[in-house]
Amino acid sequence: MKQTGDLALVKKMNTAIVLDAVLRYAPLSRAQISERTGLNKATVSSLVLDLIDNHLVADLGPGASSGGRKPNLLEFRASSGYAVGIDLGVNYIRGILTDLEGGVVAEHRLTLKAQNVESVIPRLLECIETLRARIPACPYGMVGIGIGVPGLVNESGTILFAPNLSWPEVPLRTIVEERFGVPVTIDNEANAGAQGEQRYGAGRGIANQIYVSVGIGIGTGMILNKELYKGAGGFSGELGHLSIHADGKPCRCGNQGCWELYASENALLEQSAPLGYHDLDALLEAAGRGEPEVLALFERIGEALGVGIANIVNVFNPDVVIIGNEMRRAEAWIEEAVQRTVARRALAHHRGKLQVLFAEQGEKSAVRGAAYYAISAFLGKMKGSGV
Ligand SMILES: [Zn+2]
């Protein structure tokens, strides 16, 4: 029995290795998989056959060859299943449907007028339902759902604390899994945004990436050594509550002088109210017209962002810091101040190869990261099943 168990385990591991090779290097031949992985050709052929039977790999037929018989090339079948990604915002729900490579095939967005849990949950389920209805005929259908939320989430997918939604504890994963019967991943929106940029945006191929989600508050998602760092309880990344003024304004978190009180969209709107501007759109438009008071305000916010980023750079020594969420829209008006402040304040050796960038996926960083969670959970399961 022991031996059978070991063989099954070896097959699972080898299946994962072969599927990874296809995901990373396709189109490629069985012989090339064998070369890249060190598995012998017979093993590769047998595992590839299983993957073809399971609709995850397609045989494209003969490709180009430098001489002799042309080898058949293999490809990952991205359209054999679909994932739903959801970005649950404070006043909107954004949903996307993606194939198994994360390519967006459908989108659905709705505006929330009420934030209470009784009215938001039905609309969230409705958004998922709308996207599910748009899945083309395929072997696996909806493989999973990923949801980014503006709050703290524990390991069982329960939202523990969502200050801007004022929700009680909500077992969101259980609710959504019971309704749709597929695996559901719930994570903080900053973590989801970090994944979105790491997989599809400005952080592609970068090992150490800190994503700073600057919206109503500030949250951060940390990719260290290509892995999302979540901390002991899954609560890492609350860098919006890093104190940047020891005797500063009191924060709702109980601390004072927190970074987000000076550098978030809320901080911007608080300071722009006396000038008669009450939303980011109006401020961006005024900055475009060259209104000096508004330009000075963006400059201050950019500097405040730079102060916090310099602290992050000194702690984590990242390759890249990516500014995302709403404030990324102000790139043209804050970038210079952010870069200048980081250059002046961060330690010299830490700045060596550092890049401070703005989110490439724009408003979709979090929703694409959320869909990625669902895809990666599905592929992880398929690799582990030894198909
Ligand atoms: Zn705070």
UniProtKB/TrEMBL annotation:
Keywords: Carbohydrate metabolism, Xylose metabolism. Transmembrane segments: none annotated. The keyword Transmembrane does not apply. Pfam families: ROK (PF00480). The keyword Mitochondrion does not apply. GO terms for biological process: D-xylose metabolic process. PANTHER family: BIFUNCTIONAL UDP-N-ACETYLGLUCOSAMINE 2-EPIMERASE_N-ACETYLMANNOSAMINE KINASE (PTHR18964:SF149), ROK (REPRESSOR, ORF, KINASE) FAMILY (PTHR18964). Belongs to the ROK (NagC/XylR) family. Transcriptional repressor of xylose-utilizing enzymes. This is ROK family protein. It comes from Paenibacillus sacheonensis.
